C-alpha cells in the first residue's frame, strides 16, 4: 500500500507543479500549502500507524495556512481521525493492485483505436471527454486541470480511445519506481468491461512489465474490483471548507 500511496502523491504533485503550485514531501506525508486544482488534495499520507502524531501536526500547520476553498486530506491507510479538526469524510475507497505477471488484457472494441496523447489539442479534447463534454464542442471556461507541461514528463501518459474521431474512453498512467499508477479512468456505459480492459492494456503498453496500482471508491467495488486487480486495503478522503 505504501507504493500505491507514494505513486498517488507523486501524481498529485505533478499536477500541482504543472499549475505552478508545487507541494513538498515530508516524513510520512506529502503536503501542499496552496490552493490545489479541482479534485486534488492538500495532503496525502505516505505511511500507516507509525508517525500519525507527526501527520496530525502537519495537518494542523496546513490549517494555519488558510488555504482558500475546500481543503482535503487523503488518509491513505485510514489511520487518522480528523473529525476533531472539523473535517468530514468525503468518500472511502480501496487500493487495488494488478501484478505484472498477469497477462495483458485482450478484447479490443471493434472500431476503436487506442493511442497515447502527444499533442496539446489532443490533451484538451481528452480532458473534455473525461469531464463528460463532447469533443469538438467549445471548451468550458473553468480552469483546466491537465496542463500541456504534463505531456513532457516521460513518466506520465494519457491514454485515449478514439471512436468515430472522438474520444470515448481514457485513463492516466504515471510511473514511480517499479510501479505504475492508473487514475482518471473514464469509459462509456456501453461495453464498459471491454473499455476498462482497453484502458488497462493501454497503461501496460505505455509502461510494460510493471505492476499497476490504483484505487476505487467503495460504491464501485460493490460490483467487484476492476478485473484482474486485487484489493490491498482501505483509504479515506477527508474534506473541510
How is the topology of this model organized?
Blueprint: H1 2-18, E1 24-26, E2 29-31, E3 43-45, H2 52-63, E4 71-75, E5 88-98, E6 112-116, H3 120-130, E7 156-163, E8 166-176, E9 179-186, H4 192-206, E10 212-217, H5 218-221, E11 230-240
Parallel strand pairs: 3-4, 9-10
Antiparallel strand pairs: 1-2, 2-3, 4-11, 5-10, 5-11, 6-7, 7-8, 8-9
Quick rundown:
The protein is an alpha+beta fold and 241 residues long. 24% of the residues lie in helices and 31% in strands.
Architecture overview:
The protein has two domains: 2-96, no CATH class; 112-210, Aminopeptidase (3-Layer(aba) Sandwich), CATH 3.40.630. An eleven-stranded mixed β-sheet has the order 1-2-3-4-11-5-10-9-8-7-6, with helices on both faces. 24% of the residues lie in helices and 31% in strands. It has 241 residues and is of the alpha+beta class. The longest helix has 17 residues, at 2-18. The protein has helices at residues 2-18, 52-63, 120-130, 192-206, 218-221, and strands at 24-26, 29-31, 43-45, 71-75, 88-98, 112-116, 156-163, 166-176, 179-186, 212-217, 230-240. Strand 3, helix 2 and strand 4 form a beta-alpha-beta unit. The chain contains five helices and eleven strands, in the order H-E-E-E-H-E-E-E-H-E-E-E-H-E-H-E.
Amino acid at each position: 500500500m505504501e507504493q500505491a500511496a507514494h505513486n498517488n502523491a507523486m501524481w498529485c504533485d505533478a499536477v500541482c507543479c504543472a499549475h505552478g503550485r508545487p507541494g513538498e514531501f515530508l516524513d510520512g506525508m506529502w503536503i501542499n500549502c496552496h490552493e490545489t486544482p479541482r479534485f486534488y488534495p492538500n495532503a496525502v499520507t505516505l505511511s500507516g500507524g507509525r508517525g500519525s502524531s507527526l501527520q496530525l501536526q502537519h495537518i494542523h500547520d496546513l490549517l494555519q495556512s488558510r488555504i482558500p476553498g475546500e481543503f482535503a486530506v487523503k488518509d491513505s491507510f485510514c489511520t487518522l481521525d480528523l473529525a476533531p479538526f472539523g473535517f468530514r469524510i468525503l468518500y472511502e475507497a480501496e487500493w487495488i493492485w494488478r501484478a505484472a505477471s498477469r497477462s495483458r488484457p485482450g478484447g479490443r472494441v471493434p472500431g476503436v483505436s487506442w493511442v497515447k496523447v502527444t499533442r496539446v489539442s489532443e490533451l484538451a479534447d481528452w480532458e473534455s471527454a473525461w469531464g463528460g463534454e463532447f469533443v469538438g464542442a467549445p471548451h468550458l471556461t473553468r480552469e483546466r486541470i491537465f496542463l500541456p507541461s504534463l505531456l513532457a514528463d516521460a513518466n506520465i501518459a494519457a491514454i485515449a480511445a478514439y471512436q468515430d474521431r472522438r474520444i470515448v474512453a481514457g485513463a492516466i498512467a504515471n510511473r514511480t519506481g517499479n510501479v505504475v499508477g492508473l487514475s482518471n479512468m473514464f469509459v462509456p456505459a456501453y461495453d464498459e468491461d471491454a473499455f476498462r480492459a482497453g484502458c488497462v492494456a493501454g497503461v501496460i503498453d505505455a509502461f510494460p512489465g510493471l505492476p499497476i496500482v490504483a484505487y476505487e471508491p467503495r460504491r464501485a467495488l460493490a460490483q467487484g474490483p476492476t478485473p484482474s486487480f486485487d484489493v490491498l486495503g482501505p483509504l479515506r478522503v477527508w474534506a473541510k471548507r
